[in-house]
Amino acid sequence: MLRLILIILTMSLSMVTESFSQKKKLKDFFKFKNKEIVAINPEDTTVQIDEDIFVIEDTYWDSLAMEEEISLQRELSLAHEDTAEVVLAYDVPVQVTEQLMVDSVWVTLREYYSVWSTTKVNPYEIDGEKFADTLALSLTFDNPSLDWSLPIPKTEVTSPFGLRRWRWHYGDDLRLKIGDSVRTAFDGIVRLARYDRYGYGHYILIRHYNGLETLYGHLSKRLLKPGDMVKAGDVIGLGGNTGRSTGAHLHFELRYQGNAFNPKEVFDFDNNTIRTTTLIVTPETFSYLTEARKIRYHRVRSGDTLSHISYRYGVSINKICRLNGIRRSTILRVGRRLRIT
Length: 341
Description:
By secondary structure, the protein is an alpha+beta fold. Helix content is 21%, strand content 30%. It has helices at residues 2-29, 63-76, 83-87, 109-112, 289-292, 306-313, 317-324, and strands at 31-33, 37-41, 46-49, 53-55, 99-102, 105-108, 135-138, 157-159, 162-164, 167-169, 172-175, 181-183, 188-196, 201-208, 212-219, 221-222, 229-230, 235-238, 249-256, 259-261, 267-268, 273-274, 278-281, 297-299, 337-339. The strands form nine sheets. Strands 8, 11, 13, 14, 15, 17, 19 and 20 form an eight-stranded antiparallel beta sheet that branches. Strands 12-18-16 form a three-stranded antiparallel beta sheet, with no helix packed on it. Strands 1-4 form a two-stranded antiparallel ribbon.
């Protein structure tokens, strides 16, 4: 009888110890990253976070309660199984906060940064010509304060958006002097800050909280880097004449999902103001693409060379050769049509 009592006591003690151990493991399991993510490393797909963590009190331990708590925390934090998907979208580490306020709606980073490149102006692979939605994008908001600004005070457009001689011009050229301050049009985060020898020169592209992006080209100096957060009116660079440019000016573009559209849909440059606080994006916004994508040709004249034609149209010699099935050594005969777009 005594032996039986000892066996029962031993088993009870073992069960208590095991229960305590399981409870401790469960408590350790309920540690979640709080505060903000301060860096993302694309090489090892890890996240570095603030040291502060919190532990959920061990009041209820049934499976239903655990599932509810885990589900809640997954909604609030990036530090879970979706993290790798977000990290791989980055080309370089970018300073971010855990959530961003977009037009009064909290949007998680997974949605906001689903496509994020620091090397490509248009990484989205979305054809604007097939755009079929109607969207209302708020350009300003009171809480938090999302404001707007002209890129250059008292703006004068020297070359507008549209067909310019032989190819489409995807922005407005704004008059300035070398060294003039260039300001961001809306609140946002810098996605690109690069140099394009044959195009934009020194340029900066900023993604804004409403999904729009603005591009500022031909700068003499860039003052920001990818990941920098800006407020409307912040100076982002100095005006210049770099890249493919024939005089000092700012090339200013507005883009949505990678597709440029006429900046005058948003700004009234004649009166130095904004046209509306809510931009309506429709298929008509990108209808110009049908005209812009038409195939265009150059008719060879006396004295023309591939180098001269390449420079004139801003198209590489290799592309001209590929489009026309010729080589660099091909003799260009007067009157021949060469496809350039």
